[in-house]
């Protein structure tokens, strides 16, 4: 396979190109007519990105950097050699730019963490590289574009070739919505780097949030999951008629013959979530019924259990109802035939949550949906007004 090497990137600029250019390498992008023009444009983009990272305060590489342009479909960074490999074949210019910024940031990460630590914190390494490639650098719109429907069921630290890149959206959430970060990604990066030898990235982030932002990782993670599941601008795209099928882990059906059920949900991995959908039958002659939800087991400070009401399974018609924050807490919801109840459960460690679900329709009296006004207002303000995912 032919390749073209950009001779060195040192201090703040790329220098001369090598002479052994293979003119047969395909170059499909960046407006280039041939491999020579493509390499020149790659060098310019690398130079601009390098300067952005240095200006932001990230640790400068102390050695010459070899960058290769190759005629394959994969760009990558080799932490053992420090070489950056850029593909000359990409579906779009934005993807090429994204790959350039992503792979170059790996080199900057490598200045703060050795190969073993980068591998130990792999999900964080890929998520942050994908974040900076989009937001602070080229705003390519590529961040999280490949997020899958089951994202919330996998742990935050999952590495499967997709999940870790989609988690760039959560990095974006933290930078954009936690006031103490003030949009300063460098502080977020440093929070993990400073404890990377002794702690997981999750523990480091949780400690930092508790100390500096008066929140915690589970709180921010659960809000982010709610954004993915229930916010109309969610990056997870699904049609209304497929919402229930795609976004629920399990279903409970309440009927006049089976008006009460206990359901259990197991969270097997830290910082992962499950969603229960509650279906019900409205007896003939009644317009609406009441659903009572009570936590009977497993709701602790390590668990966030939130209840949402959707009309017509349409995320633009979403209402946050309440949280179940302790065992014994009861939430009563008035529902009608075109509404659905969803219970989202997130946990910071493996656990089992048990809920008692009951249907009530005898002598219905008027009463408001039970919810905490302060929390409801704050929660929706965060999801709808401060949301930085676009």
Describe the fold and architecture.
The chain is α+β, with helices and mostly antiparallel strands and 390 residues long. The chain contains eleven helices and 15 strands. It has a five-stranded mixed beta sheet with strand order 7-9-14-11-12. A four-stranded mixed beta sheet has the order 1-4-6-5. It has a four-stranded antiparallel beta sheet with strand order 8-15-10-13, with no helix packed on it. Strand 2 (9-10) and strand 3 form a beta hairpin. Helix 1 packs across helix 2 and helix 7 packs across helix 8 (201-212). The relative contact order is 0.09. Residues 10-20 and 364-390 have low confidence and may be disordered.
Structure at a glance:
It is built from eleven helices and 15 strands. By secondary structure, it is of the alpha+beta class.
Strand numbers in spatial order across the main sheet: 7-9-14-11-12
The assigned structural class equals alpha+beta
Distance between the termini: 39 Å
Residue windows where pLDDT falls under 50 for at least 5 positions: 10-20, 364-390
**Biggest sheet architecture:** 5 strands, mixed
**SSE string, helices as H and strands as E:** EEEHEEEHHHHHHHHHEEEEEEEEEH
pLDDT averaged over residues: 83
C-alpha-based Rg, rounded: 25 Å
Net shape: elongated
Q: Can you count the beta strands?
A: 15
Helical proportion, percent range = 25-40%
Number of helices: 11
Properties at a glance:
single chain; 390 residues; alpha+beta; five-stranded mixed sheet; 34% helix; disordered C terminus
Topology (elements, then pairings):
Blueprint: E1 3-6, E2 9-10, E3 13-14, H1 35-55, E4 67-70, E5 76-78, E6 83-87, H2 93-112, H3 115-120, H4 122-138, H5 163-166, H6 168-177, H7 185-193, H8 201-212, H9 217-230, H10 240-247, E7 250-254, E8 260-267, E9 272-280, E10 288-297, E11 303-311, E12 318-323, E13 330-336, E14 339-347, E15 351-360, H11 373-384
Parallel strand pairs: 4-6, 7-9
Antiparallel strand pairs: 1-4, 2-3, 5-6, 8-15, 9-14, 10-13, 10-15, 11-12, 11-14
């Amino acid at each position: 396979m032919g390749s073209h090497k950009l001779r060195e990137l040192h201090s703040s600029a790329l220098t001369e190109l090598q002479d052994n250019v293979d003119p047969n390498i395909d170059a499909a992008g960046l407006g280039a007519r041939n491999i020579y023009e493509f390499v020149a444009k790659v060098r310019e983009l690398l130079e601009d990105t390098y300067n952005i990272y240095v200006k932001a305060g990230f640790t400068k590489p102390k050695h010459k950097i070899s960058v290769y342009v190759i005629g394959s479909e994969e760009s990558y960074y080799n932490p053992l050699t420090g070489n950056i490999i850029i593909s000359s074949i990409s579906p779009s210019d934005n993807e090429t730019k994204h790959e350039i910024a992503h792979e170059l940031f790996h080199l900057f990460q490598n200045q703060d963490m050795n190969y073993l630590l980068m591998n130990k914190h792999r999900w964080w390494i890929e998520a942050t590289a994908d974040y900076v490639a989009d937001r602070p650098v080229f705003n390519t719109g590529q961040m999280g574009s490949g997020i899958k429907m089951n994202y919330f069921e996998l742990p935050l630290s999952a590495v499967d070739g997709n999940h870790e890149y989609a988690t760039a959206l959560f990095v974006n959430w933290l930078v954009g919505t936690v006031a103490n970060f003030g949009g300063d990604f460098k502080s977020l990066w440093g929070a993990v780097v400073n404890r990377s030898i002794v702690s997981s990235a999750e523990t480091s982030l949780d400690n930092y949030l508790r100390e500096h932002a008066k929140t915690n990782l589970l709180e921010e993670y659960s809000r982010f999951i709610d954004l993915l599941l229930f916010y109309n601008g969610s990056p997870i795209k699904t049609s209304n008629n497929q919402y229930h099928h795609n976004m629920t882990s399990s279903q409970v059906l309440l009927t006049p013959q089976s008006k009460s059920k206990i359901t259990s949900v197991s969270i097997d991995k830290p910082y992962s979530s499950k969603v229960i959908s509650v279906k019900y039958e409205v007896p003939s002659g009644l317009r609406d019924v009441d659903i009572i939800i009570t936590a009977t087991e497993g709701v602790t400070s390590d668990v966030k259990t939130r209840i949402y009401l959707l009309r017509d399974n349409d995320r633009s018609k979403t209402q946050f109802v309440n949280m179940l924050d302790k065992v014994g807490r009861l939430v009563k919801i008035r529902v009608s035939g075109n509404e659905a109840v969803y219970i989202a459960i997130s946990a910071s460690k493996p656990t089992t949550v048990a809920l008692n679900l009951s249907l009530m329709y005898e002598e219905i009296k008027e009463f408001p949906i039970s919810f905490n006004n302060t929390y409801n207002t704050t929660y929706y303000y965060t999801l709808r007004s401060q949301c930085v995912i676009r």
